[in-house]
Amino acid sequence: MSEAIEPVGDKARLDTPPSVLREFWHYFSENRGAVIGLTIFLLLVAAAIAAPLLAPYSPTGQFRDALLKPPIWQEGADPRFLLGTDAVGRDILSRLIYGARFSLFIGTVVVILALVTGVILGLVAGYFGGWLDTGIMRVMDVILAFPSLLLALVLVAILGPGLMNAMIAIALVLQPHFVRLTRAAVMSERGRDYVTAARVAGAGRLRLMFVTILPNCLAPLIVQATLSFSTAILDAAALGFLGMGAQPPTPEWGTMLAEAREFILRAWWVVTFPGLMILITVLAINLTGDGLRDALDPKLKRS
Amino acid sequence: MLSFFLRRLLLLIPTFIGVSIVSFAFIRLLPGDPIMLMAGERGMSAERYLELQHQFGYDRPLVVQYLDYLWGVLQGDLGQSIVTKRPVLQEFFTLFPATLELSLCAITIAVAIGVPAGVLAAVKRGSFLDQAIMGTALVGYSMPIFWWGLLLIILFSGVLGWTPVSGRISLMFFFPPVTGFMLIDSLLSGQAGAFRSALSHLVLPSIVLATIPLAVIARQTRSAMLEVLSEDYVRTARAKGLPSRRVVGLHALRNALIPVITTIGLQVGVLLAGAILTETIFSWPGIGKWMVDSVFRRDYPVIQGGLLIIAGIIMLVNLLVDVLYGLVNPRIRHAR
């Protein structure tokens, strides 16, 4: 008996499917845009980490002898400043490089805040149901009834302008999406056999929620997290632009744009570069997000 | 159908109450003392403070204050602005047409370009055209629109000098508002050049506001079309020998548009959020700029009332979209 089975077992071992990570990379790398997006994103991360090494000058150092100097390829440029200087003589390139730190930091913190609170609320709502579910979802409906930027703006006005408060406000307005996704996923998983099996085996509520069910709801959450990452960067920059986010002289890209507004018709470079950085960053993340969705979402995965 | 509509309407009530509680709570959470601000008196004595507190009703329990506020809201009384002393609702109605005109122009641009672009991308799936359209849409979707607006100003107002930088119409023209829509009013006024001026003021803000909805609609149209194009009835239509134009334009597009309608409806929130930035950049005197200004002036009643009205508009439009969805797709209506 056992002799007959063993070869089959050997064969099965040879044919074991590739690891999850390798399978994921196989699908992800099929999407050329996603690979480009991820590359740009990793370069930005590297630039943010190595900012003190890369940036030629301090982001807040002012060169009083070089105000509003154009980029190097334009007439009247100062060769010391590759992308020119702003109205108080700060090197724009250095500010842009340091700005990457802020944007990536904002994205990370906001997504973690929104994801953790959203997943917990969604798990509770989906797992327990009843009045708890109704209550949580009604509150989420209320948050979603406001335009997110307006709600964030008013929240920041209440909490006081600043980067930290802007991040809290943005996390709060993004969180309902995570709650809804988690709840929907939990409700469809809750009745499955493997959950019942775990329950019969004596798994506690917390174990059922976080260890048994949650890992099977991860794919849409990861995609949503990527999308929220770019939304967070955009909204934080918008709040900075409105004067409610990071405060000057912080080299945050949106705040830089707000400072540059009055020079818009005189010095195009102070307006163009910070916005371009926002666009490139958000675009890279969205490209990556599209690739993640294709690779992770089983419904869209080619059979 | 009516019961479907009424059920949806009933579902809105708890959300609306929640929205009113949130906007009511905000005014009490904002830093600064609203009584000091509203009174605008220096060196106020303690007695005077208590008197004003009583006059504004701030000495009553919060629940009573809230119910009183809600009662006022239901009768159309949203309080009055601290700065202008005018009723909030009246201010809203003066400014809303500007935002409505801008939003309607933007959504028209978005639908007029987004739907055909999405259809084209779906029909030519995988081609260079498809990739170009979807690439452009992703750029539009990722666009920081406040920067996009500044870029357009640099190019069209600065370098080319084609369009004005801000406002709704040149100061040379004045006429009483009839409809509140500058395009229509300028025509009605009969003044030469007024319409041109209004139009040139409207172009850039509309493009800026249209950018994100346009990208979203194009992406949504493409994926809806792709789904529909692979269905049996489309194959049948093709097998019958119908010309491709007819299959795509009539058979497929009709069904593909159902989810697209929902997407278009959901853009109202996007438009109102976008109006905050667009109107600020172009000094467009609409409700987006009104809200930003009020936040900076700490004009609490306006913030409170504005939040409530804007959330109300979004909820109502979402309801209408739901109903419309039920109308065009009977499966939804009967399933619930």
Automatic annotation (TrEMBL), chain A:
Protein name in the entry: Dipeptide transport system permease protein DppC
Stored SUPFAM superfamilies: MetI-like (SSF161098)
PROSITE patterns: ABC_TM1
Cellular component, GO annotation: plasma membrane
Highest classification ranks of the organism: Bacteria, Pseudomonadati, Pseudomonadota, Alphaproteobacteria, Hyphomicrobiales
Locations listed in the record: Cell inner membrane; Cell membrane
CDD domains: TM_PBP2
Coiled coil regions, renumbered to chain: none
Transmembrane segments: 34-55, 102-129, 149-174, 263-285
Residues annotated as domain ABC transmembrane type-1: 100-289
Recorded GO MF terms: dipeptide transmembrane transporter activity
Membrane topology, from the record: Multi-pass membrane protein
Family: Belongs to the binding-protein-dependent transport system permease family. OppBC subfamily.
GO biological process: protein transport
Keyword annotations of the record: Cell inner membrane, Cell membrane, Membrane, Peptide transport, Protein transport, Transmembrane, Transmembrane helix, Transport
TrEMBL record, chain B:
Signal peptide: none
Topology versus the membrane: Multi-pass membrane protein
Key words, A-Z: Cell membrane, Membrane, Transmembrane, Transmembrane helix, Transport
GO CC terms: plasma membrane
Domain of life: Bacteria
Major location (coarse): membrane
GO molecular function, one term: dipeptide transmembrane transporter activity
Domain ABC transmembrane type-1: 96-325
Regions that span the bilayer: 6-30, 102-123, 143-162, 169-188, 194-217, 256-282, 302-328
InterPro entries recorded: BPD_transp_1_N, MetI-like, MetI-like_sf
Protein's name in the database: Dipeptide transport system permease protein DppB
Record organism: Lutibaculum baratangense AMV1
